[in-house]
Amino acid sequence: MAGSGRDERAWVRRAQAGSVSEFEALFRAHWGPAYRAAYLVVRDASAAEDIAQEAFLSAVRTLDRFDRRRPFGPWLHRIVVNRAIDWARARALRPEAEAVDTPAPERPEHDEELLRELDRLSPEHRAVIVLRYLLEYTPGEIADLLELPRGTVNSRLRRGLDHLKERLE
Amino acid sequence: MKRFRVPNEHEAVERSWEVVRAAYEAREPVTWPRRHARPLVAGALVAAAVAAVLSPPGRSVVHSLRKAVGVENAQTELFSLPARGRLLVSGKGGTWIVNADGSRRRLGAYRDAAWSPSGRFVAAVKRSELVALDPKGNVRWTLPRRSPRFPTWTGTPTDTRIAYIAGGRLHVVAGDGTGDRAIGPAARVAPVWRPGPGRVVAYATHGKAVVYDVDGGRILMRTPPGLPQKLAWSDDGKLLLVFRPYGLRVYDRRGRVVLQDDPSDATHDADAVFAPGTHRLVIIRIHGLASDVFTGRNGRLLYRGSGALRQLVFSPGGRWLLVTWPTANQWVFVRVGRPRQIVGAARISGQFGGYPRAVSWCCGR
After folding, report:
1. Which residues does chain B have within 8 Å of residue A17's beta carbon, measured at their own beta carbons?
2. Global pTM?
3. Beta-carbon separation of A31 and B17 below 8 A
4. Which domain, by its residues, includes B164?
5. What domain range is A95 assigned to?
6. Is residue A8 very low, low, confident or very high in pLDDT (cuts 50, 70, 90)?
């Protein structure tokens, strides 16, 4: 998981100064959650890897301009989730393009079922569920990240949860 | 959900790390003095402000410091433009045309203005009228309207249209001032005509950007919510820039996001433009007490200044980029290609009756 705020500021500061090891610490603290969030929205491991990687390449490009008083995670997650939604929408428009990459499950049965039901939601609904329950943002923070009205976030959460509850019960 | 792991995650992270590390190692880190310039400038500004308040000699400190912000060896006046064409500017001091040789003509007390497609006329607005002028300032026609803003002109040499906002609605009128009609509610954001055939305009309404076919009378595209501050088309009309200080988006004609850029927290963008004839964006990002001008695709830094850079305007052909810099009361012309060249012009507000907004650099005539 991501380090404390102080750790993170130090990583960013030293990474800006050119320290590969500190940049690696920042990368390893944030890559996993970013990759998982992207995967849960797009349900394609290769695409999720590309999305998380591209978000970090964007971070490299703007590292010198990054304001280290602010947390790195929300900025990264905004990029990741928006790109994941765009990717999922684009795939929905051309479903013939490629088969969904579903790797062999190594999860408890309940998780498998949860993922399958999550898959039935729209990318927009999946994104708010992932931001709320994987990355643990508040609805207000999700509204800021996705540039949506708070009421829209709440209603997507409610509908998403209602759907999951109904199907999993 | 927090327990969830993607199978083969370890291999994926290592693959990505190889790519990201290579990009990190290939970047050019900002050197110590540049990274620390911001706190130093901040400290100096605070000290100067205190000194100015406390003692008369302090005022000379302020004066010295103000001179220190800006391009060194800037021209004391705007003597000439570094490229062909004519620059249209508007502000508190009215609307002006600046010719390539540096000569200036004030068209009048207009608050917004736009070139006609051929650069032979200018559409401008006053408090209660839309006006068409020639470049000498002679009025060709006027149209009384309540608080008109943001005229923008499109068309062929024989058939043109002007879009503008008045009374909270988007209007379109023929280039001879006839046939004015209201299209629909619009926010106070400059509409932009799509280059190319047909009359298609992008404007902001109900907190989003809309692309509207004026001839067909139908909406071609709506963006997701988020009121833009500026809209711009690429020269080929294929991409629409929807600019907001905290997140810009570029849409293709089908409404898909093809590029997005979200400044990190506590930074924001002041302006973004397409480089002429390309899909490449150039962006001003403000962070703390400094601003950067950089290319969107690879993050290449084109210019950095203390304080707030405000606006970007490309010369015809795209070789030179005008960066407006109110903090330094300067305009900075950056030659985008190689060899890199920077030309500054000082005392801008004194020459235009206030620091003006650069509208566009037209036509090379």
Report:
1. 29, 35
2. 0.61
3. yes
4. 86-362
5. 1-104
6. confident
